[in-house]
């Protein structure tokens, strides 16, 4: 989904930026594939937790 396609029924959208503390350490110690999997899992978690919202990840 593209961000410009994520408007609500009234034409509004929000953007939330999340900083994961020490995330670079995960990439450095576990590799970028593991970091990518973690980010995808977190996005899926948010999508499932906030079912009334559309989450881009």
UniProtKB/TrEMBL annotation:
InterPro entries noted in UniProt: GGDEF_dom, Nucleotide_cyclase, Rev_trsase/Diguanyl_cyclase
Coiled-coil boundaries: none
Pfam family membership, one: GGDEF
Domain GGDEF: from-to ranges: 11-57
PROSITE patterns: GGDEF
Protein name according to UniProt: GGDEF domain-containing protein
The organism of origin for this protein: hydrothermal vent metagenome
């Amino acid at each position: 989904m593209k961000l410009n396609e994520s408007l609500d029924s009234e034409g509004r959208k929000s953007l939330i930026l999340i900083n994961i503390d020490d995330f670079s350490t995960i990439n450095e110690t576990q590799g970028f594939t593991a970091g990518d999997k973690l980010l995808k899992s977190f996005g899926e978690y948010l999508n499932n937790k906030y079912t009334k919202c559309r989450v881009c990840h």
